[in-house]
Amino acid sequence: MAAFLVNATTGLSPPVAALVSVGNTGEYLVATELLRAAGFRRELSRIGDVVLLTVVGGLIAPAVAASVGTAAVWSAGMVPPRQAATVWSTWWLGDGIGTVVFAPLLLTLCAALTRPRPSAAGAIEGAVLAAVTVTVAAAVFLGSARFAYMLFPLAVWGALRFEQTGAAAVTAGVSCLAIFATVHGSGPFATGPLNDRLTQLQLYSASVGLTALVLAAATTGRRESEERVRQRTAELESSNCELGAFAYTVSHDLRAPLRAMHGFARMLAARDGHALSSEGRRHLDTIDRNALRMGRLIDALLVHAHLSGQRLSREPLDPAATARAAAEQMRSGVDGARLVDISIAEMPGCEADPVLLGQVYENLIGNAVKFTRGRERAVIEVGSTPPRAADGDAVYFVRDNGVGFDMRYARKLFGLFQRLHTDPEFGGNGAGLAIVHRIIDRHGGRIWAEAEPDVGATFYFTLSGGDLR
Question: Would 178 be classed as within a structural domain?
């Protein structure tokens, strides 16, 4: 009805006005249904939404109004047949560009009603943007300036700072002033027939609007992605804190009963061990041994959990010196009857936490010492290889000639309490490599292994950004 009343006031006869209003209504219905089916969001927060509005609202739907309207005025004898194509294209172009220019303003204003009010600084910046836009647009379309591209930076300003609302407001404001000036013979589009001038103006307005809207959608997408990353980072940090607190609580609560088990087992063995049968003493030893093992597992779990929240204290380090200190500590615990040859080459300096890098070498060299136990002469090499890319990080390694492992099971190496060899063979709790992996990950590096059964294993790792050659 509203469309009919508007068309009737333009001098059209009631039947023609009715037909034109049917075309106008059909245009909006077609656009609405197609946009809804395509998952369009009226906030225009995605580049895909801008493309949908342009294609559906600016290209497809206007063809309905143009076709019905042109047929109506032609059938009424108001347009000669030879001009029907021109009337149709002008109608289609006007409706389409009107949708691209003014529909975003209405959509973003509706969406803005549900958002928090801008800050005082934002309101002042918005007022400055509006004033500058009106001033420059007046100079371009009403004054002596004839450079229409001077308004593009203002559209970019609106898109970057105020996203869709700014982009749509600048575009609509510029377009209104430009239409007024062009109709009255002023501005860059003031020469030539009125129809041609308006066509050029509409194309210009569409260019400004689409540029600003696409930039605004890209800005919104980046902001939302950053917000999601911040939210997920906060969630992960919270989860890590909770996990650390849980691990600490569990380990603390489990220590008391384990100490009691171990203490009473030792007391029973000392006081009444002579009265026990050999089978009873074996069971008692099993209780004592497993209580101690459980204590070591709890300690390892606590260390692993603590690494998540521990703050890194990076400083320039000499990895060779750190490795030598770790090797000396390992040698002090080696059976004097064993022949263990540990060679440590000079390596590129790095930036790392000295305590944590020491733990890395202690675990890797300790593993190498442990898994070469059956060798007549254990050979352990600690060194580095050149970066695998021109701008890559140095690759550090610890190599041994021990029992190695089957590479099919390499994915299990760095899991907490995962073991590729049985406890009676080599001992340990399966936490060392998991701790090493966590430390390297905290440094932004990576760790991997290469091995062959009964030949040996090599563990490689990098420390991201740490090469100080």
Answer: yes
